[in-house]
Amino acid sequence: MATLVTGGTGFVASNIVRMLAEQGEHVVVFDIAPPSDLLLKYIEPWGSRITFIQGDILNQNALEATSQHKITKIIHAAVFTGILPHIESGRSKDIVAINVMGTTNVLELASSLSVERFVYVSSGSVYGDDHPDPVVTEASVTNPHTLYAVTKHASELVTRRYGELHGFSTVSVRLGSPFGPMEQITDHRENQSLLKEWTRNIILGLPVQVGDQSVERTFTYVLDIARGICAVLNAPSLTYDLYNVSTGHKTTLKQILSVLRELHPDLHVLDNAALGPPPHGNNFMGSERLISDLGFCPQYDLYSALKEYWDWRSTNNFVE
Which domains does the chain carry? Predict the structure, then answer.
């Protein structure tokens, strides 16, 4: 028995793969990109439990080839994160095709296999920016704007309906601003987190440029996100078919800089009044469903997350 993870060589999905394998599960990774040396090193202690298959989710026949591995559960994380304006305008059709038709193809596979559970990895971007709710919950009104956010929301609805029509358990998880190991620029994910940018500057001996340090943002360490998704995947039963997965805490840019300075006393901060607030992560996503229904509790605070992330960067000489 195995769990299929689509897009499993990517940022969040590779951490899901690692978490599943660490928990003793056999994982089949389906991705258009082969595993990099960086990824193979990251999952090396559990590599015997992981099988990589290279293929395109827009190719139904390629997807069907995974069925030989006795797939019983699926986490669909393959996506085109075409958020940057020049990518959204230049590759609009690709974003829609990969994110909606790709999801449909994986759901077709799930239907043919009669899987126990199908988890769709969605995004907090479906709520839109600057949501009026002080705490954004699963009951909050959605307001997707970018093609990425629109296709994420559409795929949630398609996922739900497929489960109803074909009789298998489906659930969507909306992620809140992940950061951590394995975040890197790829053909399908060019936008990067603020914390990756800042830690990169420290490595290169460059100043961290910041505007208003009182601005609040929410960040979630990627291994906490992976742990939350695995809890949803393996729960004996679910009360809901939608869960936010977020650390549930806002922090100011000043507080983040304070932690970074504690870890790296030579940190140089350059105040730049002309620099606007960083994009994304400005909604406070609550995860009460995940906590109350599944007993989930994040294991990392900001300090421990940044320290582990820095150690990973240093060990792997990861400068990007």
Answer: 2-178+220-245 (3.40.50.720), 180-218+249-315 (3.90.25.10)
